[in-house]
Amino acid sequence: MAYAMTAALQMSPVTDRLTLGRLGWTRPERTRILSSMGQDVSERIPLRELGDEQLVVLCQGDDHAAFAVLVDRYKDRIHWLVRRMVGGPEDEDLTQEVFIKVYGAIPGFRGGSTFKTWIYKIAHNLCLSELRKKGRRGEHLSIDEEGDEKLHRLLPDTRNDLEEEIEKRDLSQSIRTLMERLPPHYRTALTLFYLEQAKYEEIADIMGIPLGTVKTHIHRARLRLRDLLLAEGDLAGLTGGLATDAGDIGGEPK
Amino acid sequence: MKCSEYIEWIGQRLDGSLPRDRFAELEEHLTVCSRCRAEYTLQKKIMGALKEGDPSGLSADFTQRVMARTSEIARARKRAERLEPLVPALVFAAAAIVLFIFRSEVAGVVGPGMDVLGQVLGGPLSRLGSALAGVLPATADMSADSSSFVQRVSQPVIILGTTAALAVASAVWAMRKAAAFIRG
Question: How far is residue B115's CA from residue A187's CA, in Å, rounded to a whole number?
């Protein structure tokens, strides 16, 4: 029975307490909404197993438990993006602001893009706004995007065990630290592409830039990170200097 | 072609954006160049590290805190929705109060209009009275001077009656909405 199913749609004592308050929805209403979306409600389905779009429709019907599921689902990923874009001690507060903004805007969400793209877009815009504030206060420091993109440090060509040496190094922490030195749009593109597994098209939509620019950002950002790693990171000792077209660096294959 | 150029190609190959006609050349170079093989390993390793999600570091009660705030927002929104119907009632009541306070000024403005109204209504009322007198003789006395009824009623009384009715109706409406709001 449909109503029996709804009894199982509980997340936690907190969300249950919230949703059972005077907030304008009832469990039969949740069942009705899900049925109207073609969801089979004959069996018990926990809210967390519903798709984003179904949860969004429930949220638009004032279902707070559904919103709590979306928060649980996206909080870490949004936090990663916020932390990598803005950093600083206020990243948790900013992540919270993202969800508050999402909550305020969700009644107007019409599904023009996926919920994932939409929430990242909100997070991205909020981070940009925060960065602008920081910029005004002179707190934002990052290397200039317009640096020399073509000159890369070369690995030394004299070590036979170089491949193994690189393979065994743990570069994660060093890379996270060095990422803070990239411009915000490079950090965003890298985070969305590698960490959030977003497609090029989605990143273009989120960042509001052309598809080709996204590809360029990702490519350049990763090479810039590589150069920083060789210049100042864990692999600084391995570097063989900056490669140029002149001289013998980067000449014949070894 | 120099190794420094292959650095770019390796990056593109790992991104999936290297043109296919360059695949073979890159593969061939990688088989003979240990430095570029190390380069390939390095860039692959960087990609792997970028895919790793570091520990979130969010407070354990993050979701609860967000939900507490959204609940406050939802309650404020509901309050605003319930208050919305009160607005026309309050405007109406305020208009009635203003009308009552400035009734003499309003009477001065509306007075001539009331005279015209009396003259316009006088004829039809007189005819209605005559018709009623014909049907019901008992009403003859009442209707005999109905033609002058509107003109004889004092204008301040009409204004006062109208404003009082408006004020009472508005007050009742506003009180009902306020009671519903408090109950809600």
Answer: 80
